[in-house]
Amino acid sequence: MADRMGRGRIGRWVGAAAVLGLVAGFGAVYVSEQGAGNGADGECAAAVDAAGRLKPLVKGEIAALIPAERPVSLASLSFLTETGAPTTLGDFAGRTLLVNLWATWCAPCRAEMPALDRLAGSLDPAKAEVVAVNLDIGNFDKADAFLTETGVTRLGRWQDPKMGIFNELKQMGLAFGLPTTLLVDDAGCLLGVMHGPAEWDAPEAAAVIAAAG
């Protein structure tokens, strides 16, 4: 019953996010074009072709996903591990990533965490991973308590209490609020971005992640 209610809430937020995503997409395309001359971005040219091939799969529960139209490298984006050690998306090289930025004060974020956890449990960790980065200011205790209370066990406890990753993505035109979710290829190149929540354990999400790999 609780799961159905959660899906209903996410469904309402997704409907609004689909409209907002179309608007936000123009900004994302514009900014990524500005960065296309960057050397790292230039190495991501193949990701644009890959993103184009994903477009037929962007439907249903993930219809608001905006495929990348310009090369953008996200490999240098940094955050912290559970122990407080710094890491980057480049450290996950070799795996397709679904990078989710969330906070406990964000109601849509809280609602989609169980679905992200189920998605994480369905993936082959050698090929793909869900990287959910918490942006709560201060220590991770509140976020950890929330994840424990909701039975989330498959997501790593990544964090960025200074919101550096969000601010960097905002400057790139790729983040406007929470949740923000990025589909990233095995070389750290952007494949797509979604502004708002989704039913991430839906078949459409699994299909696009599999195709991205």
Topology (SSEs and partners):
Layout: H1 2-34, H2 39-42, H3 45-54, E1 66-67, E2 78-80, E3 86-88, E4 96-102, H4 107-122, E5 128-134, H5 141-149, E6 158-159, H6 164-171, E7 180-184, E8 190-195, H7 203-212
Parallel strand pairs: 4-5, 5-6
Antiparallel strand pairs: 1-8, 2-3, 4-7, 7-8
Describe the structure.
The chain starts with a helix and ends with a helix. The protein is globular and about 40 Å long. The strands form 2 sheets. It has a 6-stranded mixed beta sheet. Strands 2-3 form a two-stranded antiparallel ribbon. The chain has a single domain, classed as Glutaredoxin, CATH 3.40.30. The longest helix is centred in the N-terminal third of the chain and has 33 residues. It contains 7 helices and 8 strands, in the order αααββββαβαβαββα. By secondary structure, it is α/β, with parallel strands linked by helices.
Key terms:
Glutaredoxin; 16% strand; six-stranded mixed beta sheet; cytochrome c-type biogenesis; 42% helix
